[in-house]
Write a structure and sequence with these properties.
Elements: H1 5-37, H2 39-68, H3 72-75, H4 83-103, H5 109-128, E1 131-137, H6 143-151, E2 169-173, E3 182-186, H7 194-209, E4 213-218, H8 224-235, E5 240-244, H9 252-266, E6 275-277, E7 285-286, E8 292-293, H10 300-362, H11 369-375, H12 378-387, H13 394-410, H14 413-428, H15 437-459, H16 468-479, H17 483-496
Parallel strand pairs: 1-3, 1-4, 4-5, 5-6
Antiparallel strand pairs: 2-3, 7-8
The structure holds guanosine-5'-diphosphate (GDP) and magnesium ion.
């Protein structure tokens, strides 16, 4: 037979009290006795014994606690935040720092400042820790009505004409069980008529791209103008809910058909449970009795799903988005730096191509095969390398120049270039007769092919790519043989004095 719990507590309590009384009594007797014999010892002895008893009780409680598992919970408590977002947040922070270093390399001050501001904004968003829920979709689909319904009070002007919302309007929400504050952001719609609409659309798209979570509102099956941006955003990893609003306008069967259709259309990027049917602001209906009746908003499925997503994925959504944004910013910065480097490298190639041409024209080389070697200046290679942050020594540059020269010759590009330019010259410059100038302009042309090939080589971190040097060179030859380009190239040759009009006829035959 088991004792009731209250009985055990009572018996235990009485026993402990009796023991305590006995202890106090014994201590008192001891104290009296000692103070008779050695009075100075009585008080320190009593205090010492009390301390010992205290320690004994504490130790007993501690070990009973271990046995009962009292301390286990607080000791091995799991961390509050799941590990993944913490790692992602750290990754996002590291990424932003790397981007800041990259941004310093951008020469154009206005562009650099704009990107630095963007980077700062992302960092601030990360620090602020709010979840940005952006409501996006076609004008008049009911975005503002949806926000009104969620907030439960009128927060924005809701009207039938398109373009009620001209800029992003922000409302804050708190959700039980979620530490982060939620920002509900209303956007102007997409697909509005007129230029003002286009501008607003750009703002809306920008806001949608910055969202942690996207609520994409439609009021029927998806149009192409809705499908493209929605799938585009979902494809870059934007967490999205597709909301079919104004369901009160459809009979139940049609409503279900549209929902199924929507689920099928977006299934590659959006889960079926994230396609939700609501009526944010149902229109009044006339009852059979003739009474006018306005149904309540039907947004419960959305609220439930929204809460589940935010509670379940909130941390992930913020971290993912920050990472996504910083990656986009990084890509933008890389592209800019890349364009900047290409421009600088092109200037170098331009300079060297006419220098080389001059040298060849002054000292004509008898053998065509030397042309390529003469055209590739090792200093040009070193300078291009420097732009891409690569310090080449003279020997390496010479080796590169030599092997590229050989490749140009062995692929027949030297002869090809002579032919190409001879034809282009006779077609484009009527007063020109083929003379020794052809060697100069061919040298310039080969310098360009070589220079462009080296730009690609350094751009790809000193690699010629899968097809090797030969393919890289061929590709540049193909890219630089278009009539338009040749015409402009010849104009440049004339301007630089490499090709002189009415030159004394001195037939060049190889
Ligand atoms: N029948 C019906 N009309 C709605 C519903 N939600 C919004 N509307 C109407 O659609 C029009 C545009 O709504 P609004 O919220 O301004 O759309 P927004 O441009 O996307 O912000 C307004 O006339 C709303 O009353 C709905 O659930 N049912
Ligand atoms: Mg609106």
């Amino acid at each position: 037979m088991r004792f009731p719990r209250s009985w055990s507590i009572a018996i235990g309590g009485i026993s402990v009290s009796i023991l305590a009384l006995w202890l106090i009594n014994s201590l008192y007797a001891l104290y009296v006795q000692v103070s008779w014999t050695t009075p100075w010892l009585a008080t320190p002895l009593l205090i010492g014994i009390l301390i010992l008893i205290g320690i004994a009780i504490a130790a007993a409680v501690y070990y009973i606690g271990i046995f009962q598992g009292w301390w286990r919970k607080s000791r091995s408590k799991p961390p509050e935040l799941p590990k993944v977002p913490v790692a992602k947040t750290a990754a996002a922070t590291a990424n932003l720092q790397a981007i800041d270093r990259q941004l310093q390399q951008i020469q154009d001050e206005v562009t650099r400042q704009a990107l630095i501001d963007k980077s700062r904004e992302i960092a601030e968003n990360l620090a602020r820790g709010q979840i940005r829920v952006v409501v996006f979709g076609t004008g008049s689909a009911g975005k503002t009505s949806l926000i009104n319904a969620i907030i439960g009070r009128i927060v924005g002007e809701v009207g039938a004409p398109m373009g009620t919302t001209t800029k992003g309007e922000i409302y804050t929400l708190e959700l039980k069980g979620l530490d982060r504050q939620i920002l509900l952001i209303d956007t102007p719609g997409i697909l509005e008529a007129g230029t003002a609409g286009t501008q607003r659309e750009a703002i809306a798209r920008e806001l949608a791209t910055s969202a942690d979570l996207l609520l994409f509102v439609v009021d029927n099956d998806l149009r192409a103008s809705e499908y493209t941006p929605l799938m585009g955003l979902a494809a870059i990893g934007k967490r999205s809910l597709l909301i079919f609003n104004k369901t009160d306008l459809y009979p139940p069967l049609d409503r279900a058909r549209i929902v199924t259709k929507l689920q099928q259309r977006v299934h590659s990027e959006i889960e079926p449970q994230d396609v939700l049917a609501i009526a944010a602001n149902p229109q009044p209906v006339r009852l059979e009795s003739g009474e006018i009746f306005t149904p309540d908003p039907d947004i419960f499925p959305l609220i439930r799903r929204l809460a589940a997503v935010l509670r379940g994925e909130g941390e992930d959504l913020v971290a993912d988005n920050i990472l996504l944004q910083s990656q986009r910013l990084g890509a933008e910065a890389r592209e800019l730096i890349d364009a900047q480097r290409r421009q600088a490298a092109d200037r170098i190639v331009n300079r060297y191509q006419w220098i080389g041409a001059g040298v060849v024209t002054v000292t004509p080389l008898p053998v065509v095969d030397f042309l390529a070697t003469a055209a590739i200046n090792t200093q040009m290679i070193i300078e291009i390398g420097k732009i891409y942050g690569c310090d080449l020594n003279k020997e390496t540059a010479q080796e590169l120049a030599l092997s590229l020269g050989k490749t140009l010759t062995s692929l027949g590009i030297v002869k090809g270039a002579i032919q190409l330019l001879s034809t282009a010259l006779t077609v484009n410059v009527t007063t020109y007769a083929l003379g020794k100038g052809i060697q100069g302009i061919t040298a310039a042309y080969l310098t360009r092919i070589a220079g462009r090939s080296f730009i690609e080589y350094f751009h790809q971190d000193r690699s010629w790519g899968d097809g090797g040097m030969a393919e890289a060179v061929q590709q540049q030859f193909q890219l630089n043989r278009k009539d338009e380009f040749l015409k402009a190239f010849i104009q440049q040759a004339i301007a630089s004095g490499t090709v002189k009009l009415n030159e004394t006829i001195e037939h060049y035959r190889q």
